Amino acid sequence: MSDLKKKYRELSCKLLNPNEIQQLSKLRPKFVVFDTLKSWILILICFLLSIRNTNIFFNLIALIVITTQIYSLLIIAHDGFHRRLFHNKNINDLWNDFFILGFMGAITRINNKNHLTHHLRLCEFDDPDRYKYQSKGRSSMMEFFFKISSIPLIFYSFKNIFIKPFLKNKKFNNKNKKYLTIPSYSIRDILIIFSCQTLIFYFFLNYLSFLKLIYLWFIPMALAQSIDIFRVFSEHSRPMIDEISDKSLRLSNFKINCLERLFFSPHNMNFHATHHLWTSIPYYNLRKATILVEQNAIKRREIILTYKSYFEPINNFYQYVRSI
Ligand SMILES: [Zn+2]
Fold first, then answer.
1. CA of residue 250 to ligand 1 center, whole Å
2. Ligand 1 centroid vs 148 CA: distance in angstroms?
3. CA 15 to centroid of ligand 1, rounded, Å
4. pTM of the prediction?
5. Which residues are CB-contacts of 67 (< 8 A; sequence separation ≥ 6)?
6. Residue 302 has pLDDT above 90, yes or no
7. Gap from CA of 21 to ligand 1 centroid (Å)
8. Cα 144 to averaged position of ligand 1 atoms, centre (Å)
9. Are 280 and 21 in contact (CB under 8 A)?
10. pLDDT at 175 (0 to 100)
11. Which is nearest to 39 in space by CA: 87, 98, 100?
């Protein structure tokens, strides 16, 4: 076990006891069903209201609402990557694929490799998400602002999630034998993606238009992906060189207002340090877990970095780049 892994293990053992972890890790699938359906109903209402509605202001509001709800669905899908939606793995994957990922052209079993490896390798050079938060490549104002826009990183993220699972990489595979198997799409996967894509294209081309397919579906999906990249930078970046940042473990929680929660961190994802330390805890218990963690941290004199806004680490990094 690497030194970093030992530090994460020690911290997680110190801050919650096994009984607390067990209680907090209990799954309550009714929350998943409710939250998934709620997001889809809001998206559908926007779609239906936009039929024959060409008002620019209305369509802009619809785009914003749809983006927030697609992002909410992606956060639920993230718990699906960890297989924390339902007790049964097959039901977890079916729900996650049919109600969320199939619409993005993805499949849990195949596309979760990137995220699970990120958890295993956070603060290591082979973390596949390292490009989202590292200081390297952000040492000038131009690089910093260009990357904060997420534009160059979306393509990299797409490659990591959709292309990389199929590329053999011997060095990577040897270190992570658990993720050695090269997945391939089954008939089930193809049927799910085909059904979801047909449904969305049929609806838009019959009841709305091709332009609205771009405006109310593809653009919100790209925006949701950009928001995710922005969130990860805020959570894991540190205003210093990477060698020192890695030693800090790069764990942060955020106590933020409702607007930031809506746009950047729905479903308690702002308690990100808590999620990294105990991935078994489902999203709806992260707030409760964080309260307990904070109480135990005070007793044990441990510190988990807590910010009051997602813009706070951005400002810290901006000041760092200015000072270089
Ligand atoms: Zn995760």
1. 14
2. 21
3. 19
4. 0.90
5. 219, 220, 223, 224, 227
6. no
7. 16
8. 25
9. yes
10. 52
11. 100
Please give the Cα distance from 35 to 222 (Å, whole number).
Answer: 21
Domain interval for residue 319: 3-323
> Degrees (nearest 5) of the Cα angle 304, 83, 297?
15
Contact 231, 219 (CB under 8 A): no
Cα–Cα distance, 145 to 35 (Å, whole number): 34
53-61 long-range Cβ contacts below 8 angstroms, 24+ apart: 59/215, 59/216
> Whole-angstrom Cα distance, residue 281 to residue 83?
11
Tokens 């813009």 sit at which residue?
A: 311
* Residue 193, CB-side half-sphere exposure with 13 Å CA sphere: 12
**Contact in structure between 253 and 306 (CB atoms under 8 Å):** yes
Q: Choose among 105, 250, 133: nearest CA to 189.
A: 105
Q: What average pLDDT does the segment 198-213 reach?
A: 94
pLDDT score recorded for residue 170: 46
Type of residue at 43: I
For residue 269 the two structure tokens come to: 């994802």
Residue 75: burial class (beta carbons within 10 Å; 0-12, 13-18, 19+): buried
Element (H, E) at 11: helix 3-15
Number of domains the chain contains: 1
Ligand 1 center to residue 276 CA distance, Å? Answer: 7
Cα–Cα distance between 8 and 94 in angstroms, integer? 32
